[in-house]
Amino acid sequence: MNPTILLLTLIIQMSDSLYSISAMSIDGQEVSLGAYRGKVLIIVNTASECGFTPHYTGLEKLYRAFKDSGLVVLGFPCNQFGSQEPGDEAQIKEFCRKEYDVTFPLFAKIDVNGDSAHPLYKLLKAAAPGIFDTAAIKWNFTKFLVGRDGAVLKRFAPNTAPEEMADEIEATLLK
Q1: What total of structural domains would you count in the chain?
Q2: Residue-level pLDDT at 95
Q3: 154 forms bridges with which residues in the sheet?
Q4: Has 78 been annotated as catalytic?
Q5: pLDDT tens across 118-127, in order?
Q6: Got the DSSP string for 116-164?
Q7: Which of 47, 50, 73, 146 is catalytic?
């Protein structure tokens, strides 16, 4: 098969499979990612006791600035890095609301690496490997940009401030 056709086929399959994945909201409701079809997504693994936790402020600013244009930020708390997300869902939700006025969708705590990694993160890591083509998430606040078609477009390192992503988000929203 032609390599270009094979690549396009894989991209379409990954797009469709992203929308077939479900996750538990922070309130315990099952949410199909298909609900976000046609939106530009920032998917991020979060933690409340991390040096990057202030990224919540920038993520919320991006969400508020671009949500009317079709951006949705999806936060997935994870306790796999230095046990920096020790709380339960109610504690995480209260922390995010009180400390950072987070209004974007938050989900129940998940694993992003290892055998118990959530299917969403298995897909994200396969579609956008990190530095030196390693799949593993290295730390909290790794961010993924997903296009309106469900294609994973880019992976951003934890130290990439949300405001540094604004131009790429805006360009993706215009596509």
Answers
A1: 1
A2: 97
A3: 145
A4: no
A5: 999 999 999 8
A6: TB-HHHHHHHHHS--GGG--S--STT-EEEE-TTS-EEEEE-TTS-GGG
A7: 50
